[in-house]
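ok trying again, last paste got cut off:
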Amino acid sequence: MPRIATEVVCRVTVSLLFTCWLYSLAFAETVVIRNDAGGNLIDRVATIERYRKSDTNVEIRKGYCASACTLFLGLPSVCVEKGARFGFHGPSSAYTGISLPPDKFEYWSRRMALYYPPRIADWFLKSARFRLVGFHYISGSEMIRQGISECAPRKGQGV
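nice, full thing came through this time. structure:
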């Protein structure tokens, strides 16, 4: 094939790929989270992996995101609102007041930290994981200062 024809084919291919990428962004699913208390860690990890594979956008809006919900912070397509509140605690038994054995506590702490951005993972491992009753709360504003993207205002929401 002549050089000019090859160049034209390459340019058309790149243009089509770029158009497909833009199209996928425009129609990517968006999940809005408000007032999520967390739940089962293994179930939440499965949801996060499904969102990661499908490039689902996750917006954590005003309200709270606690426990396993905070693991969404590690998704590349997550954003948070300044007014959201995040509640962290360490891994614990399914039975209130019963601690995990030290080896299980370490395993599950490190497993959870894998789902956080590096700065938050470091803080979690040094501090927040040792909170087993109640939550250590962090504001959306602080999450934004820690490098999490801020959500754009929604239509009709204002600034």
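cool. The radius of gyration is 20 Å. The CA atoms of residues 91 and 105 lie 6 Å apart.
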